[in-house]
């Protein structure tokens, strides 16, 4: 649901508290290094990346990669075989596509 998406939360918080926000509209995973390099040269993406050193707060979501209905699955970044691998490591959540267990180990 859009009201719990990290982007929407960032926009709402910025509006309520009079802050600024920038959304990074880029894929979480790239097919190869040249794709990443090309994207980093894109004017809008570069504008956001150039602000990283000035950033004081980043809002990211905590996902549940174990759910077949998760955003990670819906976006195609993971498949059922990946989920089975995560189960072997007792994964319980993910932040920025980094799965972690109940101790916080990735």
Please list the strands of the largest sheet in the order they lie side by side: 1-2-3
Rg estimate, integer Å: 16 Å
Q: Any idea what the shape is?
A: globular
Number of helices: 5
Query: Main β-sheet, in a few words?
Result: 3 strands, antiparallel
Low-confidence stretches: none
- Name the beta content range: 5-15%
> How does the helix and strand content classify structurally?
mainly alpha
Written overview of the protein:
This protein is mainly α. It has five helices and three strands. A three-stranded antiparallel beta sheet has the order 1-2-3, with no helix packed on it.
Summarize the structure.
With 106 residues, the chain is mainly alpha-helical. 39% of the residues lie in helices and 8% in strands.
Give the secondary structure arrangement, pairings included.
Blueprint: H1 6-17, H2 33-41, H3 43-49, E1 62-63, H4 71-74, H5 80-88, E2 93-95, E3 98-100
Antiparallel strand pairs: 1-2, 2-3
List keywords for this structure.
single chain, 106 residues, mainly alpha, three-stranded antiparallel beta sheet, 5 helices, 3 strands, 8% strand
């Amino acid at each position: 649901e859009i009201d719990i998406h990290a982007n929407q939360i960032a926009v709402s918080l910025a509006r309520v508290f009079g802050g600024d926000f920038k959304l990074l509209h880029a894929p979480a995973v790239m097919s190869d290094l040249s794709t990443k390099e090309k994207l980093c040269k894109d004017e809008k993406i570069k504008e956001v990346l150039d602000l990283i050193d000035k950033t004081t707060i980043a809002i990211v979501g905590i996902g549940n990669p174990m759910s077949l209905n998760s955003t990670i699955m819906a976006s195609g970044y993971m498949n059922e075989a990946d989920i089975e691998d995560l189960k072997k490591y007792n994964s319980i959540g993910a932040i920025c596509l980094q799965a972690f267990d109940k101790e916080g180990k990735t």
